[in-house]
């Protein structure tokens, strides 16, 4: 039978320090019969007695005195390893997130992760930078932008603007400038959607329905895009959650269905699959994604 070397040495050290099997077992937080069995197993393993059992007190034999320093070192090393394991479990997982996530959404995701003993530290960045942060190992994982059909999470996009709520879809062709001229309405793409699988598809629809090139433009920031929409009849490409947060009216696009796709990209040695499985619904809520697996 294999010997529980650490458990047996812990009982051995505790009894030697207390002077009796009963007191030593109490120090080791185990029943006295368990302490006796563990020490007996250790003695059988070594082939020598550790204690002189001819007296009421637990007196070390010469062999026991020689073995005690090594037993203490083993117990101390085991305790240090347990401590290091607890610290490692509490080490925050640095996660690169989209800049579209609000403080509240990130806090709710953090709280959900802590309930599973997962501790997160967020780094918000645009799509290309998130992927680079994983490559350079500045973060342990990232929610990277991918085509919607390839992503674990999908966030439908539409066009949002000021004014009264209107039912139905919004066709880009209705934004064509008429012969009378006038100021053309523009569609603003925020940095989160400045990726080929979204931006280029929207540009192709722009060209096919006869809009001017400048009528669909990439903004420097979400703030700049929202400011342009607040002060005009321009529109913002965004999710329903973002539209609600900004107080804008959201409608789907008539000519095309667009959606952000997100996937977990993890660094070397990280378990992306386990992270994805444990926090799937919480990440979905943080992103404003469709809650379908």
Automatic annotation (TrEMBL):
Keywords annotated in UniProt: DNA-binding, Transcription, Transcription regulation
Similarity field: Belongs to the LysR transcriptional regulatory family.
Molecular function in Gene Ontology: DNA-binding transcription factor activity; transcription cis-regulatory region binding
PROSITE patterns named in the record: HTH_LYSR
Species annotation: Amycolatopsis decaplanina DSM 44594
Protein name: LysR family transcriptional regulator
Residue ranges of every copy of the HTH lysR-type domain listed in the record: 10-61
